[in-house]
């Protein structure tokens, strides 16, 4: 292969990567994108805090949707590229995924590593759900994130539910 062909191939690869980056940047910008949903969330009760639980975009082989649990109660599903919004009274909370015995045609199972967070009144916490694949199971780690990383990660994700719903756009906060 001559240098011209190598150069053209590198240009094609670069353009392909640019297109993927642009698509990812736009993914969370629709009516269910983080900024749009956050603007329409109801105000927190004075004794409550907010938890954003999110699942970054995963490889297709890791595209399964286990239930997300907060203190053992299901608040939604861990869907690749989405986030959940959960409002709870101040206190200690464990964020986990359900131990689903079979999530694929191969009969695999999920092993979960929960995270415990302390939520103060008026506080916002972020928990990232990270999947690690092995030959026999998938390990889901619930990882607390700081506000800077959590907000950055949420920018390209879409709303997927939780125990609090955004207001209708006509009722948007001032």
Domain module count: 1
Structural category is alpha/beta
Shape: globular
Average pLDDT for all residues: 81
Describe the overall structure.
This protein is an alpha/beta fold and 174 residues long. The chain has one domain. The chain has 3 helices and 10 strands. The protein has a 6-stranded mixed sheet. A 4-stranded antiparallel sheet has the order 3-2-5-7, with no helix packed on it. Strand 8 and strand 9 form a beta hairpin.
Notable features of this structure?
globular, 174 residues, alpha/beta
Give a brief outline of the structure:
The protein is an alpha/beta fold. It contains three helices and ten strands. The termini are far apart.
How is the topology of this model organized?
Blueprint: H1 3-27, H2 34-40, E1 48-55, E2 67-70, E3 73-77, E4 82-89, E5 91-97, E6 109-113, E7 115-119, E8 124-133, E9 137-145, H3 147-154, E10 158-162
Parallel strand pairs: 1-8, 4-10, 6-9
Antiparallel strand pairs: 1-4, 2-3, 2-5, 5-7, 8-9
